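Annotated sample (chain length 205).
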Amino acid sequence: MNNKISIFLMGILIAILAMNQFQINSLHKMMLSQNGSMNQAQAGAQVQGVSSGPSAQEVAAQILPKGVPARYGAELGVSFDSAAAAIAVLAPFEQDTRLDKLSGKNLERYISIGSQTSCEFCCGAQTMVFADGNKACGCEHSAAMRGVVAYLLDTYGDQMSDTEILAEANQWKATFFPGPTVEKYMAANGQSGSGNGLQSQVGGC
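Output written by the structure step:
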């Protein structure tokens, strides 16, 4: 009799232990499932944050030039903050319209620099100048960009490298085309968004 009771009680104990183990396993699986869902949600949020990134206005505040150019701004009376007015000042210095034409080494440098950039967002020209130094585009923006190159070669050619002068021309390009410049920058850095809300161009073509 005692043996039967012992066997019966042992059976009940085994059943209870098995049920507890089943509940523990079920709870463990539930926790893993919840953690997995949370991790996926967090990963999705991170991916979404990377893809969206800063707004076009925030990028514009970081990359678009502002104020008076340090070396020549005051002497010419031009500012990145008044791009339209600067066009009228810079354009007359370009090779095609100036009376005292660039020649020799300065002309070679002018052609070299002008062949490395363009007013790409305006009329699709691939360069600012042709191989002979004549203008490759007749828009106001390109004229002003060529003008700043010619002026800097004439005035600071012995103090500035071609790379530095090219950088100044591209600073003005960014100022003349703020929206497209920001869009291109964001795309190059894997950021979504557009230059919507930013001016597409300053001046005319």
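Annotation: The CA atoms of residues 38 and 44 lie 10 Å apart.
Annotation: The chain has a mean pLDDT of 81.
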